[in-house]
Amino acid sequence: MTQILTVPTRPFEGQAPGTSGLRKKVKVFQQPNYAENFIQSVFDVAEREPGAILVIGGDGRFHNRTVIQQAIRMAAANGYGRVLVGQGGILSTPAASHVIRKNKASGGLVLSASHNPGGPEEDFGIKYNIANGGPAPEAVTRAIHARTQEIDRWLTVEAEDVDLDTPGETRIGELIVAVIDPVADYADLMEELFDFAAIRKAVAGGLTMRFDAMNAVTGPYAVEILENRLGFAKGTVVNGTPLEDFGGHHPDPNLIHAKDLYDLMMSENSPDIGAASDGDGDRNLIIGRGRFITPSDSLAMLAANMGGAPAYKGRLAGIARSMPTSAAADRVAEALGVPCFETPTGWKFFGNLLDAGKVTICGEESAGTGSDHVREKDGLWAVLLWLNVLAARGISVDQLAREHWARFGRNYYARHDYEGIDKAAADVLMAGLTDGLPALPGKSFGRLTVRVADSFSYTDPVDGSVSENQGIRILFEDGSRIVFRLSGTGTQGATLRVYLERYESAGGLLDEETGAMLAEQIAAADEIAGIRRHTGRTAPDVIT
Ligand code: VG1
Ligand code: CO
């Protein structure tokens, strides 16, 4: 028996998981007991049998290996029977979800701050996923937070660091630690879901692509799947080596942080399709030659066409989208006669719907799309579904988009982010908005008249749990909409997100510039929320 050591500790303030786990500066996580308190709190509340399996992996960012070693020792002291850890400490978020499901693990620790930058001065994060492979639901994250507020000890054992770079099994007392290939199972799953033969044929016939892994976790996955298994030319995957600081960039696949890819796709010598993923591999950016696809449109277009992929043929149970995501998917659901669900922001809200078989595809405006194959959003999965659809139909991204809008109409859509604003000012802004809601219906801003103004609240149709204050919605009589909410993933000050949307019917203006189409909503947003007045900002930092 290895001796279990009990280390006394005291609670830290602010260990509440946000939209997607606990995210803080690396410096915060480096404080003695900080990560340990949180991990012990997870182990104290997690549902598991003695000897249970725990999956551990991360996006390879700075501090990943340190926390993994500590988590393994703590798992040994906390009665786990087996830890599965990705080689090099690597597991993309969707791959971790798959490993949990495939091995019937009791849960997993995903060490990532996703799209946030990495490095000694940047961000780190810990997320707990439950046995269905998905992010812990709110009841669990609340219990974890409550535990962090009263914790007085954490358990560990004395043991050497595990060699994370060599596949195979080692033992720490009763615990077996298996270092597993992080890519193989995931790549096999993708090959089961999609028609790789059809994609290979299209590639052989000249289909070209660029995939920007942003020096984050998807590099090894993308090289194996796109270059090795599908036959795309060597060099199709760029920035394919995971780096602890992501090369100093934000691994956030949007038009600002993946600007090189965007510029290439808008140029004369662009490949047919460009794609990128984020730090932990759960987001996707899709750009066709000369045509950017908003994530909201991507969800709708994939939902309308996914029957072309073997795993989804004739089985679209329903579609779910987060509330701020555009209603483009709703029109597809309506046309196909399947239900559409509107959930709060964050993938944890899709888990019950997927488990209950109520939906097959889910998506968020923040570049997240996924299906019931795992319980996380999945960047490469979305890219492969696009490739499968293009190969099966023999059309381009631009043609598919035009065809879609000509059938369903187009939801012009943008998100304006005001980053790093003063937290107190952001709270005053949101409180002002909330207080002003009852007076808004009937009021006009330019040509827009408010029809409904409310604070979004969600009742889970499966377990009846209620989540309140999930964003302020201003719905106008012409069908356009503004949503305001504060980010739950940032680590500095506050980030205000303003989501703007306007629908044009199939006979309307389908190929206009988004900013121009949303000018009235943009002006109304400032008038209603007093963004300038409260934050001093005259323009957003990021528009996606
Ligand atoms: C953001 C996105 C949200 C996403 C979350 C986690 O949250 O808006 O849609 O689920 O990030 O994505 P927030 O609270 O900052 O708006 V990831 O790729 O960081 O795991
Ligand atoms: Co992510």
Automatic annotation (TrEMBL):
The keyword Signal appears for this protein: no
GO biological process, one term: carbohydrate metabolic process
Organism whose genome encodes this protein: Novosphingobium endophyticum
Residues in Alpha-D-phosphohexomutase alpha/beta/alpha domain copies: 15-152, 185-287, 297-408
Keyword Phosphoprotein: yes
Lineage top rank: taxon: Bacteria
The name this protein goes by in its record: phosphoglucomutase (alpha-D-glucose-1,6-bisphosphate-dependent)
Enzyme Commission code: 5.4.2.2
Lineage, opening ranks: Bacteria, Pseudomonadati, Pseudomonadota, Alphaproteobacteria, Sphingomonadales
Cofactor names: Mg(2+)
Keywords: Isomerase, Magnesium, Metal-binding, Phosphoprotein
Reaction catalysis annotation: alpha-D-glucose 1-phosphate = alpha-D-glucose 6-phosphate
InterPro entries associated with the record: A-D-PHexomutase_a/b/a-I, A-D-PHexomutase_a/b/a-I/II/III, A-D-PHexomutase_a/b/a-II, A-D-PHexomutase_a/b/a-III, A-D-PHexomutase_C_sf, A-D-PHexomutase_CS, Alpha-D-phosphohexomutase_SF, PGM
